[in-house]
Amino acid sequence: MTTLFQNFFNKKQLNRVTKDFPEMPSIDGLEISTVSAGLYNTNRDDVSLFYFPEGAIFSGVYTKSSTRSVCIDWNVKANKKDVRALLVNTRNANAYTGKQGLNSIIELSKFFLDKKKISNKQILFASTGVIGQPFPLAKVKNALPNLIEKLKRPIKLTWIKQALSIMTTDTFGKMSCAVVQTNKDFINIAGIAKGSGMIAPNMATMFGFIFTDANISQEVLNKMLKRNTENTFNAITVDGDTSTNDMVLVFSTRKAKNRIINDINSKAAKDFEKALYEVMLDLSKQVVLDGEGAKKFLTINVTGASNDKFAKEVAMSIANSPLVKTALAGSDPNWGRILMAIGKTNERVKQEKIEIKIGDSLITKYGMQVPSYDEPKVKNYMLGDNIIFDVNLNLGKGKFTAYTCDFNAEYISINADYRS
């Protein structure tokens, strides 16, 4: 296993890589491979391919950045009911690259048309890395024959390699899976993700690629992805920055033997959607856990807002506050920073109704700090690495949960050295 990791991590990072990887299933109708195209100064794998020999349906959600990558513009035009391949590269974002960036993926698509009879509407692209640098077309194109030659059905080891190959500043590969039983039939779900910094909703510097063999309609799959993104990938933040490239894609080969899921309200649909949500949430949390330099994981539960939209605004205001996140890094129960983050939102709160809890300790009620507040106890709680804030606005039934991490000096160090 050391050989597998040595080209991806420096010695300082290796202790974080030993996390247990799940027993990822093989997805019938999917083949994967990864190789080095020489995009880094090491020989780490940096280009990966996901191939569907008999095609797949897919659904995608993408960054809302107005300076998004040409890959996003390409993918939204793809045939959602018959896709054959997804090509991913790291080190270069292919964003703000002008005609050179677009011409590069056109050239790559021609290769797949020639070698695999895949049309330009049947291939997707995902790029992550430095923005504004010319796309390394020659290196990526030269790697494609080897990439195709190495295609095989996924097993645990090859899933790990795929997860590692799409990383940039990540310190571990992110994988999750589930098995769903509908009647006597079984459906497999397997997902990988990347993301560590420039993480904020709508999407972020983050990829989520999820694969299933569920016999499901594209329309139902699309609805499931969109409504479950809101409480998973769009509920996380590391630094509040929204990237140019990010996407979550869900593919189905429809090879499972279950009766087709074409009614989103059916029991089979609900069972499958629950498992899909759990995989998406798990991957989302792993992205936060790997926040650049992160040492602590913070869950922020906001309840009692006038509606869910405002609950999310309050939760994300707290989650994105540098003052809250640095207090978290210092294990400082400075609840005034939480109050500040609540107050700067568009939600018209009533101070006397706000209740703030850190862990199981009630901090504020009736517009002031509670008399029983025990700061040493709360300080001791915040020395932990899994912290929970509960905020009740007592205005209505709106609720939302956000996830974030601390903000410390290592984040600055990682990003200051990013292009070196």
Commentary on this structure:
- By secondary structure, the chain is an alpha+beta fold.
- The chain has 2 domains: 2-289, 4-Layer Sandwich (L-amino peptidase D-ALA esterase/amidase); 297-416, Ubiquitin-like (UB roll), CATH 3.10.20.340.
- Helix content is 33%, strand content 24%.
- The chain contains 13 helices and 14 strands.
- The chain has helices at 2-5, 14-17, 70-75, 98-116, 137-149, 156-165, 218-229, 267-289, 308-320, 322-329, 335-343, 375-382, 409-416, and strands at residues 31-35, 47-62, 83-89, 123-127, 174-182, 185-195, 206-212, 247-252, 297-305, 355-358, 361-365, 368-369, 386-392, 398-405.
- Strands 1, 2, 3, 4, 5, 6, 7 and 8 form an 8-stranded mixed sheet that branches.
- A hairpin with a 2-residue loop joins strand 11 and strand 12 (368-369).
- Helix 4 packs parallel to helix 5 (137-149), helix 7 packs across helix 8 (267-289) and helix 9 packs across helix 11 (335-343).
- The two termini are 27 Å apart.
SSE map:
Elements: H1 2-5, H2 14-17, E1 31-35, E2 47-62, H3 70-75, E3 83-89, H4 98-116, E4 123-127, H5 137-149, H6 156-165, E5 174-182, E6 185-195, E7 206-212, H7 218-229, E8 247-252, H8 267-289, E9 297-305, H9 308-320, H10 322-329, H11 335-343, E10 355-358, E11 361-365, E12 368-369, H12 375-382, E13 386-392, E14 398-405, H13 409-416
Parallel strand pairs: 3-4, 7-8, 9-13
Antiparallel strand pairs: 1-2, 2-3, 2-8, 5-6, 6-7, 9-14, 10-11, 10-13, 11-12
Helix pairs in contact: 4-5, 7-8, 9-11
